[in-house]
């Protein structure tokens, strides 16, 4: 965003998808060929197609789609993304490929199958690889939806950052879509975030504890987060290639160059209607927090990073079943005499805040599945039903590819089943 925009006046959405072999579903590193075909020129790194732009990512089997300019509303974006997915699949078909959703590939071996993007911007990817070794699940096998929200000045930055910090710990309760890696259940509903949270361990200041520190002005953010990060990476980055805001790997990062905060913690869902429905719930909840509907700005600012990180670590394992402390639930207007599952908070938030959104009818079906039935991770486990042999996993993820192509939610028929949320 080139000029600072006020809170909730515009939205930047980015969604990453895997490119896989149409028959085997193995990763297919042809993003460069796909972008070249779409742009009709070699070595293209991005292609603007009206409302949506395609671009490369760190690895050559991932395609990113994003809004070409900040959108005034989230409504209508699901259809725009779906149209572009169909176009990408049509270009991939002669290459034997298709797009796959979810936040991670279920049987990719990143140690042997990783191919970094080889063209423009490759110096940055090579610098990341040299510093952190990108041949692992936390780098080479993870896809997410990023939500970029604007702010104008320190007051709006502080309020938005406080609200995002408060909500981040339970975002995986809805967004988790990565229970399977290396062909087996990992024990985490959001294994993508479990691996991601450790991918910068060589330089701890780059990641922190995923939940950002309690800083509420630009100067404090530069002093407490960016400066230590740049200092600590310097010995591993002698040319200074990584000396930029994009080095920050927290679950939400400030992008002062464009006056936005980018939320990076949400796994890609099964179709754009589900992704945008998820974005709608998250944004409407953040609006409620910024407006102090259930808790004050001062209460939100006072939240301990340690306590928030503890809830987050439980949520990436258990998703909606995560039991949160009573005092945390009260931040969202949820009161009960004992600890409360995260799923209850999200239901209340959806019911109380979505009616004020510019609601998109495309969200109705995925919301019914996501909020009332379960996270995609539990639906995947229900579909596999304990059979982690390759054919069963391949069948389930083939169905997920079909959901992406048709822009329909993945309904495993588990309403009321033990997989519930």
TrEMBL record:
Signal peptide: none annotated. GO terms for molecular function: glutamate-cysteine ligase activity. This is Glutamate--cysteine ligase GCS2. Keywords: Ligase. GO terms for biological process: modified amino acid biosynthetic process. Pfam families: GCS2.
